[in-house]
Amino acid sequence: MKLLLSAGDVGEQRCAICERKFWLGPATAYAISDDNVLLGETCPACLESGPQEMERELEWHARMSRWVAAQKEEFAREGFSEVPSLEEYLMAERVYQTPLYRSAEEADAAIAAGGPGLLDEND
Question: Which pTM does this prediction carry?
Answer without folding.
Answer: 0.64
